[in-house]
Each structure stands twice: as structure tokens, then as C-alpha cells.
Amino acid sequence: MKAAYITQPGPPESIQYGDLPTPSAGAGQALVRVGAVAVNPIDTYIRGGLIKAQLPSPFIIGCDLAGTVEAVGSGVNRFKPGDRVWASNQGLMGRQGSFAEYSAVDECWLNGTPAGVSDEQAAAAALVGITSWIGLVPRAKLKSGETLFVNGGSGGVGSTVLQMAKAIGAKVITTAGSDEKVKLCRQLGADVAINYKTEKVDEAIRAAAPSGVDVWWETLREPDFDRTIGLLALRGRMILMAGRDARPTFPVGPFYTKDCTLIGFAMFNSSAEVQQRAGEAINGWLAGGKLKPCIDRVIPLSQAAEAHKLQEQNTIHKAGTLAGKIVLKP
Prior knowledge:
Layout (H helix, E strand, L loop, with lengths): L1 E5 L9 E4 L9 E10 L2 H8 L10 E2 L4 E8 L11 E4 L14 E5 L3 E3 L6 H21 L7 E4 L5 H13 L2 E6 L2 H9 L4 E4 L5 H8 L4 E6 L6 H7 E9 L11 H5 L4 E4 L7 H16 L7 E6 L3 H12 L9 E5 L1
Parallel strand pairs: 9-10, 9-12, 10-11, 12-13, 13-14, 15-16
Antiparallel strand pairs: 1-2, 1-4, 3-5, 3-7, 3-16, 5-6, 6-8
Helix pairs in contact: 2-3, 2-8
């Protein structure tokens, strides 16, 4: 089978595309014929060695996939050959990744793909959808009628948080870096979308949420706690899911006297059971049209190195040239 892989961590140019043995479905696994995969920032961190991990060699890159079950191993009960499925969590904890024509996936990480949802949409919604649901529902406990702020409402995580928060019934304030992206955020349901390059963001947030923001979803790599705590409501919650190397100053006094809560989490620390609950919610919103994954472009799997380079330019160097996910097809 064709696959995108590395033999040791390195820059995007270290990604090779070529033939590797087709895996088989072991006990508790399904062999999935991959229809689409998506790029996540964590994929680039693992490939580049920023996250230290014991990787098989060669190591197939990628976390997310969607496709069709080709065969199942012993003990698999939820799926059968011919079923359409999607998954995340590949390429982690010693598992091979998803950027290949076939992938052997543990049944516990698989979700059925709803009718009418394409492989491209399912792959684009996988990791960002699970991340967003875990942050909003069991961790921040966002409620209908509350106000949420998320940076970058046209990005992969930002656009998903925006749509899920609206599905829950929250008021959503977000930012974007161009008038075109602001328009997209509004189309996705944002109540207030602010162009952070041309508008005064803090003034706009205060005008939209005079009592403060109930849930602040931080996507910036260098959070400004002084600023954020000043914009939070009493008993506001702040979610951190970025800034792996950040060491900002933290204003303890203003934080605790507002009864605030700081929530840090990484999706891959959650159990399979929690992630299955996330998958069920995601599928319901996908099927009902309340969650429409933002896809910036769809390219061949053979261009995996170019996709990683583009993702890094946007995640690390803030190029601003992406509005949504990069999806690749074998």
C-alpha cells in the first residue's frame, strides 16, 4: 500500500511517500480502507520531534481518518466489512498513524459515519470535534444562554468550538484575521465576529458581553492571563489547549477573587469511553447539519510533506493562509 511515513523525526521534508506492507486486522481491530485523512498541529509536533515519543520505524504519520471497513479481527462486534467509519487517536501511544491507503484501527477508537456525511467531512471533524466536545461539555460544562469566546473562529478547532457552542445554545464571540474570514464565522453562526487586525478586540468583547465571558477557549500559543481574566465573568472558565512551551505570568489575585476556573486538557488523555461519547454527539450534529467541518483544501496523500509545511506555517508562524482543515485523499 502507499503511505506517508518517516524513519526518524525531522522537518516536513523528512516525510516519504511510498510502498509499505498492508496491515491486517488483529484481535479487536478493523482494517479500514482509508478514504480521507486530515492534518492536525499535533501531527507536525510528533513528526518534528517536539513531542518525544517511542515511534515504530517506519512510522506512518497522522491521527485522523475516515473510510470503509475492509475486514475485522476476532472480538470486533460493533462494525462489519462495508461499514463506513471514522477515527482519531492514530499515531499516538505507539500506534501507527493514518496517512496510508489502509489502517488497522482498534475498535474502541472507531465511530460510524452518518449517511450523507462524506469521508472528507468525517476526517476533518475527527480530532477537532472530539477535542471541542470534551472541552465544552464534560470540562467547561457550557450551558445554553452562556457566552463563549474563541480565538480564530475560522480555524479547525475554532470553527468547531463555534458551531458546537451554538448547538448547545450559547452566544458566541470570535475573532478572525480578514473580512472574508469574519464573514465565514458569521455564516457558521457566530453572534459577534471581530477582525482582530482592524478592530479593537477587547472593546468589542466588552460591548457584546458587558457582564463578562462565561467560557473563554484559548487557542493562542502565548495566552495573556491579565487580559483574559479582566474579560471573564464571575465564575468564568478558561480552557487551555495550546501553548505547550508557554510560561506566562499568572495574576492570582484577580483570578481567585472572581471565582474563576482554569481548565487544561489534551484530548488524547481521555479514555476511549469518553471519546465514544464525543463521537456520538459529533455524529448527531453532523447528521443534523449543525456541524459543518471547515475544509480549506483537499489534496492527494502524496503531498503530505507540503501539507505539513503549510500547517506549520499557520500554527507556528501564524501565516494566516488557512481557513479550516487540510484534508488528503489516498
